[in-house]
Amino acid sequence: PGYTAGLTPPEQWDAIPLIGKAQILVAIGMLESYGEILPVHYTKGGQPGYYPPIKGNRPELILNLYDPFDFFESATAEEKE
């Protein structure tokens, strides 16, 4: 299939193969479930949208979400903003 110009967003979603839709939904579900097990939930004073580093929490998690290749590890707080 690939990209087709001139489609509305619902038509674009319908053009995605079923396996592609499943991959999108599973990835979102994994992030949602990971966000729900944080020590301080965002509804109880936690920071909305924050995901702590996941690298090393499980054997298959070898990269972090925000900085997978540690480009910003040595940056100061001022540079990060």
User: Could you give the count of β-strands?
Assistant: 0
How many separate helices? 3
Strand content: under 5%
* Rg over C-alpha atoms, rounded to the nearest angstrom: 17 Å
Shape: extended
Low-confidence stretches: none
Q: How many strands, which pairing sense, and closed or not: the largest β-sheet?
A: none
Taken in chain order, the helices and strands follow as HHH
Derived from helix and strand composition plus strand pairing, the structural class reads mainly alpha
How is the quaternary structure best described? single chain
Explain the layout of strands and helices.
Blueprint: H1 9-15, H2 18-36, H3 77-80
Commentary on this structure:
The protein is mostly helical and 81 residues long. Helix content is 37%, strand content 0%. The protein has 3 helices and no strands. The radius of gyration is 17 Å and the shape is extended. The mean pLDDT is 81.
Features:
3 helices, 81 residues, mainly alpha
Summary of the model, kept short:
By secondary structure, the chain is mainly alpha-helical. Helix content is 37%, strand content 0%. It is built from 3 helices and no strands.
